[in-house]
Structure formats: C-alpha cells, structure tokens
Amino acid sequence: MGSSGGVAVVLAIGTANPPYCVNQVDYPDFYFRITKTDPNSPLKDKFRRICEKSGIKKRYMHLTEDIINQNPNLVIYKAPSFDARREILVTQVRIDMPTADHKLANLIGLKSSVQRFMIYQQGCFAAGTALRLTKDLAGNNAGA
C-alpha cells in the first residue's frame, strides 16, 4: 500500500513480438550459419544442449538472415557495426523523435501532468522494470 491508501493492481499485460521467428530447436543451426562458425564444432553440441534445457520454444527477432548477410559486421566480434545497428533500429523498431510514447500521449489526449516513463533498449528485461515502476506509480498516487 502506498501513501494513496490503495493497492496497485495489474489490470492487463500485452505483448509485442518482432515478425521474424526462429524455433528454438533450429536456433543452433541458425546461429552457427549466420556467424559462419564451424558447424562441426563441439561448441555447437554444447549450445544445442543449452537451448534444449532453456525452456524457450521460439525466438522472435528483428534480425533476419538477409539483414545479417547485408551487414556482416553485425556478427563479427569487435567489428564496427554502430551505423548498421542504428539504421536497423530506426527502420525495424521505428525509434523516432519525438518518441512514440510522446506521440501516443498526444493522440489520446493524455494530460501533460500525468506521470509516465520511458523504457528503451532493455529487451526482455524491460517487462520487469515496467511492472516495478507501474506498481510504484499506481501505489503512491491516488487515483492513478
């Protein structure tokens, strides 16, 4: 309970997945193919075992084999790839200024006095961060 005297409750959770999907059972082959790593390496067997035990069924990603083939520095250790990564981010993830959350707030008429927060570049970790921040905001602000 926060100072508002209420309890924060999650009413809904949504998901958004990138369009490209690789089944976990195929991921070791995919990874070793795109990184041009020896497919007969003992590391591949170890990687396959890790993938099998992970409990993950599907991997969603923005990077397709075509994108990686067009930008080989993405999979070369310590190769310069900042410009390619930024271009992919802008076109695939649609990062823009002003940010999407700001545009959405304006579209739905959200008052500027409403507290909000941005979470960028955290991948899957963002979900836990968003839930913690949301609970704090809702639990400590009456009527939130």
TrEMBL record:
Secretion signal span: none
Any Pfam family the entry gives: Chal_sti_synt_N
InterPro entries to which the protein is assigned, alphabetical: Chalcone/stilbene_synt_N, Polyketide_synthase_type-III, Thiolase-like
Domain Chalcone/stilbene synthase N-terminal: 4-93
Stored PANTHER family: CHALCONE SYNTHASE (PTHR11877:SF57), HYDROXYMETHYLGLUTARYL-COA SYNTHASE (PTHR11877)
Protein name (record): Chalcone/stilbene synthase N-terminal domain-containing protein
Originating species: Hibiscus sabdariffa (roselle)
Lineage per the UniProt record: Eukaryota, Viridiplantae, Streptophyta, Embryophyta, Tracheophyta
